[in-house]
Amino acid sequence: MGPEIFGVSAVIASLVATVAGAVVSAFSERSRGSKSASLELVQPTEDPVKDSRLSELREALARQKAIARLNGWADSSLTFGQYIVGGLLASSFIQESMPNQVIGALGVLVLLSSLIRQRYRPDIKAFGARRRAVLLRSFIREVEDNLYTLNTTQDNAPSIYAIRQKVSERLSKFEESELADAQQEGDAATVG
How far apart, in whole angstroms, are the C-alpha atoms of residue 140 and residue 129? Predict the structure, then answer.
């Protein structure tokens, strides 16, 4: 009874890891660009944080952190399904002590994990999101420093317009970077 319980547990764990990894990868890819862009005329306010678009930078940082976290989890789940379960299937002890149906099901799960991981590449998505998050944190500090010099009325303080323009340029670069990453993933999926 011991090896049979292990086999059923391994099938369930592998299935959950594979399905969860696939779902997270698919939703991560689909969520890109889900916010619709609307053109609004923005009026200056008395709030330099709002006028500088610092809140947009913070939202972009939170989004990149979430993408990195979800794709990291998906990559770990798919790696578990691919390597750990695949390694267990390679052992003669498991092959001899489990029914053929369980071994076949585990083999299919290993194959699915491998295919999903190869298609969606959550490891690359997580790395790109972590890279953008680091750059965003650095730029947020720079904007906060500029706002500080503006609030303390130092001679070398940039105008709120100059800060806002710089933030807009950087946000556009981050979006272009994300779009380029998505394009590379799409190209790799059609070639592979």
Answer: 16
